[in-house]
Amino acid sequence: MEKRASHPARRLPRAVREQQMLDAAVRVFGRRGYQAASMDEIAEEAGVSKPLVYLYLTSKDTLFTACLRREAHALKSAIHRATANPAAQDPEQLLWSGLLAFFTHTSEHPDGWAVLHRQARTHGEPFAAEVASLREEIAAYVTTLIASHTNAAHASATPLAHALVGAAESLADWANRTPGTTAHQSAATLMTLTWPGLSRPAG
Fold first, then answer.
1. Which residue of 3, 52, 84, 117 sits 20 to 30 Å from the alpha carbon of 149, by its own alpha carbon?
2. Distance CA 24, CA 185 (A)
3. Which domain holds residue 75?
4. Is 57 in the same domain as 87?
5. CATH number of the domain residue 99 falls in
6. CATH code, domain with 41
7. How far is CA 103 from each of CA 70, 82, 165, 185, rounded to the nearest angstrom?
């Protein structure tokens, strides 16, 4: 990694400085992994001193948890924005909007997705619990969308939502490791697999 020039940190509002640290931490955790990442490396990436990182975020575990929560919130927000007005979209368009938002976000934030999908799951509690909670929230939201805007009853929408979320996660992970794969291609692939079943009349 290229060495950054050592210089005193400019005075910035705490919230701005903390976001800079989280940005740097996500990059380092996403590319190096939780175990290999060091607070020295994160401080250098953020352009601040290591004591300042500890002052703001107290420990490596606390920093990683803060990264998880921020990236989870950003992903949920992207999906919610795309599907915020379901009445204005037919069910097929609604599914497309949600899938495209998911794959666009994960492709544009590969380090954040690596932190959420790979790093957190391999390091036990409490990190795995944070990701499990995110997955349940998204699955519950997708369940509501499926039940409200397709022919599926709520009881059958729940397993469909979990299957859809699991497939989206796996495909996003593959797409981010496969150069040239676009968010549009990933969304189209999953749309082709899922929409015929969701649109089939109940009975």
1. 117
2. 29
3. 68-199
4. no
5. 1.10.357.10
6. 1.10.10.60
7. 18, 12, 12, 9
Answer whether the bond into residue 126 is a cis peptide, omega within 30°.
yes
Give yes or no for a contact between 37 and 45, defined as CB atoms under 8 angstroms apart: no
Gyration radius of the chain over CA positions: 19
Tell me: do 173 and 97 sit in the same domain.
yes
What is the sign of the dihedral through the CA atoms of 101, 105, 108 and 110?
Answer: negative
pLDDT in tens, 72-97: 999 999 999 999 887 778 888 999 99
Residue 96 forms part of a structural domain: yes
Helix (H) or strand (E) holding 98: helix 91-108
Is residue 39, in this structure, part of any structural domain at all? yes
Domain count, the chain: 2
Q: Is there a single domain that holds both residue 117 and residue 101?
A: yes
pLDDT of 1 higher than 60: no
- Name residue, tokens 């805007």: 149
pLDDT confidence band for 124 (50 / 70 / 90): low
Query: What per-residue confidence (pLDDT) applies to 3?
Result: 47
Given this model, what pLDDT does residue 9 score? 47
Q: Could you report how far apart the first and last alpha carbons of the chain are, in Å?
A: 59
Res. 62: pLDDT tops 50: yes
